[in-house]
């Protein structure tokens, strides 16, 4: 990271820290926090690292439900990416979990540049419609809120 980028990033982190007191929520031995500030995926990961954590890995349907509730239905980056090898999705914290809950038709790598995952929700066409919370791959340079996790 260049010095200028580092300065900008440090200011950005400072601004976020000033706005949001981090309220970590604890679930099954880890701490989690949702941040509504929109960042690119790599900047979100850098931010989580400054807090001693990482973008969240999600390893079970229980944890998935918990993280989605924490994000209050907002789209939010999680620590899942296939930027290194297309189609080989890996957790940024190296968690070996193979759990996933992609939205129907996802990940579809639209435009050839969707390498980062976020939690999302779609409306299933039932009567009445049902909101289905699932994952989507998006362009890593798009900006969204995000969920960090760290060890207790
Ligand atoms: Ca997608």
TrEMBL record:
UniProt xrefs under SMART domains: CLECT (SM00034)
Record key words, sorted: Signal
Residue ranges of every copy of the C-type lectin domain listed in the record: 27-149
Record-linked Gene3D superfamilies: Mannose-Binding Protein A, subunit A
A Pfam family that the UniProt record links to this protein: Lectin_C
Signal peptide region: 1-18
UniProt-recorded name of the protein: C-type lectin domain-containing protein
Native organism: Neogobius melanostomus (round goby)
């Amino acid at each position: 990271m260049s010095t200028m980028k580092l300065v900008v990033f440090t200011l950005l982190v400072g601004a976020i820290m000033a706005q949001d007191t981090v309220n970590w929520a604890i679930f099954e031995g880890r701490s989690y926090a949702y941040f509504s500030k929109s960042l690119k995926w790599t900047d979100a990961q850098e931010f989580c690292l400054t807090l001693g954590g990482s973008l969240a890995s999600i390893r079970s349907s229980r944890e998935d439900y918990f993280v989605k509730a924490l994000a209050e239905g907002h789209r939010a980056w999680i620590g899942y990416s296939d930027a290194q090898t297309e189609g080989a999705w890996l957790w940024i914290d190296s968690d070996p979990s193979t759990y996933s809950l992609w939205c129907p038709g996802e990940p579809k790598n639209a435009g050839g540049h969707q390498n980062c995952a976020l939690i999302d929700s779609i409306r299933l066409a039932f009567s009445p419609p049902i909101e289905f919370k699932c994952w989507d791959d998006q362009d890593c340079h798009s900006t969204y809120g995000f969920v960090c996790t760290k060890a207790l």
